[in-house]
Amino acid sequence: MPLSKLYDHVPIGVCIIKRDRKDLGILYSNPAFLKMLGYEEPRDLEGLTLEQAWPTPEALELSQKLKTPTPPTNATLSFQDSENDKKRWALVSIHETNIHDQNCFTLWATDISASKQIEAKLEQALQKADESADQKSSFLATMSHEIRTPMQSVYGLLELIEQEKPDPNIMSMVKTAKNSASGLLEILDDILDFAKMDADQMALDNFEVPVRTLAYGINEAMAVKVQGKPVDLKDAIAEDVPFVIVGDPKRLRQIIMNLMSNAIKFTHKGDVTLKITKQCQHIKIPNNGVGLRFEVIDSGIGMSQDIADKLFTPFTQADTSTSRKYGGTGLGLSISKKLVEIMGGKIGVNSIEGKGSTFWFEIPTEEVSTDSQVLDMPSLDGLSILSVEDHPQGAKEIIRSLQSMGATVENCPTYAEGLELAIRRPFDVAIIDQGLPDGLGLDLMRELMELRPFTGFIMYTVREDAGLQHTLQSLGATYLTKPASRIGLGEAVQDAASKVQKMSINGPTKLLIAEDTDSVRDVLQRQLDKLGVSATFVENGIEALECVRSGEYGILLTDLHMPEMDGYEVIKNIREDDEKLNRHFPVISLTADVQMSQRQVYMSHGFDECLLKPVSLGQFQRLLVRWGLLEEIKKPKLSSPPTETTTSEKPAIDREAIIAQMGALDEGSIEMLGLFVDMTRPLIKKIKKAQNDNDFHALKETAHSLKGAARSACANILGDYAAKLQDESEAQNEQPELIKSIMVEFDRVEKEIKNL
Q1: pTM > 0.70: yes or no
Q2: CB 427 within 8 A of CB 454
Q3: Measured between alpha carbons, how far is 244 from 212 in angstroms, rounded to an integer?
Q4: Quick one: which of 194, 217, 273, 508 is 20 to 30 A from 225 by CA?
């Protein structure tokens, strides 16, 4: 039987063609091949070439390749279904053969239309998934803008009210309103964090993490949440735990803070312990690495295993009553779970109802030698740094770290000394702690911003305070939580210094603002009126571009989301004009998008700077000074020291200082003073015991604690006595009369607070 007769019965399409560079004529085709291409008889293909018989672009391309010295071995070709005229696909396998001394190609064509349909559906599903992810990103950007933009009006108007120095009742309401706005922003940050991780867009940093400093700092920060509750915060760190590991200090802190906050929330009495060991049970220890197990152990209300199994699900809490009694979005544990998983770790909870819970997580990491210099440190050569830090060990760490990068650092421990030092000389960057013995770091920062508008500011604190964080963000200052790695602190200083370099404008200095929201324009106009600066407002990008091209203006502040033409299109057009005119027109983005506030992001779009909504008066003022639209605030004169009065003439509590610090001498501030008395009484007992034991070290440490507490409560005389005792104890000088004065003054403070 001839070979062709065998092919007649094969269900797969078979076609034999000449192997000729000029002519790929068809010699034979079986019935299955004829049917595939819609032909009835073999004679229908007589005298035709492959591309004539199979008239598709893919077949034409195959024909060209078959004429080359190295022909392909397979190809995928389309064809039309003869019955319903739908497009179908065939996989063609090509073999070189010799028939009757004629070099030929045998083509085996298999219908793969069903596979192609599945592939098309998968591609369509993938495209929809990508579109869904894009929609999610777009939604997040829009939501961030739509929520943060109204905050421009809220924060701006509240700040203007504060500038008017209203009576204490109004000031108290202003602070309450700002705290409520901060709570809203905190929830928004959680949602954005969760969605970013859900879209696999969360990236971790790898820095140095000082484990013990991290733990101590977290317990210190969480102490605020247990005031008024009989709950003790403890730590238990095994001796073999490394001092420094590789990790993301911000995210690691976020996980532990979430677990600690939950433990404190559901523990009414007893203790909450942060335990760190190397006793990992659920992860594989990396080669040449180490595994750490973190446990937050509480004696709280506990939960059943059914509830515990669902606890890490987004928006889930222990039960429906929990959200009413305890509050919260139910996102904290879900975010913690995702962060731990990104770190390559595991997280879980063991709990007994009515007995308490143990939340744990384990992560793989690496130990870093405290003498190691494996990371490239930022260069801070020539930068002059002011550090206001009252804790001696903390001050030493700041000075040592920054000096190793080339900076010169001067440290002082108090608000008053920091202010005096900044008046006498300028600094490139000021690093300020929030809790100072004689005032709040935020107040010092605001005062220094007016005094030194070209200084960069960093708030370096153990406190995890969303309100403080957003206030600093609106002021254009950096919020850095302790402990930061050496490289983290160095990069924060480098970034803060780069943001305050004085700019210059060549030509007109008239200000143009493009903003489409009425309330935002109103606040900006009020702020400009207060600063004595004039500006022209437009409502869309087209008008802004026309004004810039008129040559009348020297700088543009533009919103990013506007009708007709947005800020991105505006900056694109301006930068194109710049190339033609050989100039650089200053453009500052005015946005509620937190991502845009990162220098590398706004600069990549062509903007010179970013002004993040809500814009504070101080932030706006510093920007105008930097760009030459507002004269630098004149250097104030040093005030003369107050005249000496006897202790008996001075009140035990400085009420004016309380009002300046707390906003009002109201029920809340009086409650704070009452807590001060309760928390300070044990220090007085410790001073008596240390005196009896002749323990100068204990005296010095206790006097330091008393000094900070007293000055924070505006009990300034008591604070001064404590400061003197600290100095005398360090010199090992006995001071029985001074200690007696402290006892008397504490009694006077306690009585005055009771009278309030």
Answers
A1: no
A2: no
A3: 8
A4: 194
DSSP state, residue 384: E
For residue 691, give both structure tokens: 């005196």
- Of the segments 215-229, 307-321, 683-697, which one has the largest average pLDDT value? 683-697
In this predicted structure, the answer to whether residue 473 has a pLDDT above a threshold of 80 is no
Which amino acid would we find at residue 414? T
Q: Two tokens at 690?
A: 């240390």
Residue 231, classed as helix, strand or coil, is strand
Unique residue bearing structure tokens 């309401």? 173
Whole-angstrom distance, CA of residue 265 vs CA of residue 317: 13
The bridge status of strand 429-432 relative to strand 384-388 is parallel
At residue 240, φ and ψ (nearest 5 deg) are -85, 0
**How does DSSP classify residue 635?**
P
Which residue reads 């062709």 in tokens?
4
- Under DSSP, is residue 553 helix (H, G, I), strand (E, B) or coil? coil
Q: Which two tokens stand for residue 664?
A: 């009002």
Structural tokens at position 72: 């392909």
Please give the Cα distance from 456 to 466 (Å, whole number): 21
pLDDT more than 90, % of the chain:
17
pLDDT at 86: 80
Distance CA 609, CA 629 (A): 15
Do the Cβ atoms of 614 and 474 come closer than 8 Å?
A: yes
The full set of domains in the chain, from first to last, is 3-111 (3.30.450.20), 207-365 (3.30.565.10), 384-499 (3.40.50.2300), 511-626 (3.40.50.2300), 650-755 (1.20.120.160)
598 versus 123: which is more confidently predicted?
123
- Map tokens 């930022």 to a residue: 378
- Residues ≥6 apart with Cβ < 8 Å to 98: 104
pLDDT tier at 279 (50, 70, 90 boundaries)? Answer: very high
Contact between residue 707 and residue 437 where contact means Cβ atoms under 8 Å apart: yes
Position 369 pLDDT exceeds 60: yes
pLDDT confidence tier of residue 127, bands split at 50, 70 and 90 = confident
State the amino acid at position 162 in one-letter form.
E
The Cα 230–Cα 299 span in angstroms is 12
Q: Is 218 left (phi over 0), alpha (psi -120 to 50) or beta?
A: alpha
* DSSP category for residue 551: T
How far apart CA 563 and CA 392 sit, in angstroms, is: 55
Q: How many separate helices (H) and strands (E) can be counted in the chain?
A: 26, 24
Mean pLDDT for the chain?
80
Q: Provide the phi-psi class of 13: left if phi over 0, else alpha when psi is between -120 and 50, else beta.
A: beta
